[in-house]
Amino acid sequence: MRLLHTSDWHLGRAFHRVGLLDAQTAFIDHLVATVRAERVDAVLVAGDVYDRAVPPLAAVEVFDDALHRLADLGVPTVMISGNHDSARRLGVGAGLIGRAGIHLRTGPAECATPVVLADDHGDVAFYGLPYLEPALVKDEFKVKKAGHEAVLGAAMDRVRADLAGRPEGTRSVVLAHAFVTGGEPSDSERDITVGGVESVPAAVFAGVDYAALGHLHGCQTLTERVRYSGSPLAYSFSEQHHRKSMWLIDLGPAGEIAAERIDCPVPRRLARIEGELEVLLADPELERYEDHWVEATLADAVRPPEPMARLCERFPHTLSLAFAPRRPDGDPAVSYAQRLKGRDDREIAEDFVAHVRGSGPDPDERAVLQGAFDDVHADDFAREVAR
Q: Which segments constitute the Calcineurin-like phosphoesterase domain (predicted)?
């Protein structure tokens, strides 16, 4: 059975205020053309269909068009909700849409209810595990501690239990939206850290033939059977070197995996440039970036006048401008920036406690701080879902 694995469409998202709906529409065109040309048997969309819980109407229209075109091809599609989606909104009408071959899995209770498709070698069971916010689904899965590994592990236990009751030789595919250990993040994914544990081991997917992952925006192979497709478009300058693609997966009669990357259209390439303004404006080596979307970081010790306007004269698609003046060693601004670099909210809070009190928090205080951040994160997520 031939599968096309994609994820993280983020319909409705802009790139530094530049609308991407035309590029997203071009991707849908490419997706449909690939399904037809490669004789795909099923399309897998592993979450973050939209960029936010209440997407703009234009994004909904692109999604609606995609569903109609996939249904017209007669190729089944299995789709889950991600952490950017409103699971309840995305799942509206799922029963009716399913009759057209578009199978939406947006609720935790549906994790062990597969979409079963067949080829010449027997059945393939497709299990959809939508993004599982631990604080909101721990009761559903009866786990004692609200953590990503606990809830995803419990969901996979249900999958394996259902699979064990199916005819011998039934092959299996899981769609999941999560941060799996070994994956390389970018700046454009929303943090899903809870309880200090942000990732789950790839071993949680043991027992299935293929795990089609969403959430991280870079195409990645964690194991032969556990892969991220990545997003079809770049959504931050940290994705400058990403090769945007989809996975074309051939699932053999005994569960063998053969994988090929299918490149996605690139609306405009990205470039990060850094240096003093006059150097950036004159360096001939930077000519190749003049048609790119550009993020410029100026190193001038004194901020130059009208830097954005001057940059745009040479790089008309400059979208982001930052300042990082070169400072001598020992400069307090440098040391403070270095202390904060790479730290999460809890670590910054602990550093602040140490700064004002002279000593860091003890284990009990650390637990209180972590609990406070977890509560804020869960409340924010619950409000977004309820919107």
A: 1-218
Whether this model's pTM surpasses 0.70: yes
Residue 56: count other Cβ atoms within 10 Å of its Cβ: 16
Strand-pair partners of 262: 246
Helices 363-386 and 134-141: angle between axes, nearest 10 degrees: 90
- The DSSP code for 200 is B
Grouping H, G, I as helix, E, B as strand and the rest as coil, residue 251 is strand
* Domain 2-263: homologous superfamily in CATH: Metallo-dependent phosphatases (3.60.21.10)
Each domain of the chain, given as residue ranges in start order, spans: 2-263, 270-323, 332-386
**Can you tell me whether residue 184 is helix, strand or coil?**
coil
> pLDDT averaged over consecutive 10-residue blocks of the chain (387 residues)?
98 96 98 98 97 96 96 96 95 93 95 96 97 92 89 96 96 96 82 59 96 96 97 96 97 97 97 97 97 97 94 98 80 60 80 74 86 77 62
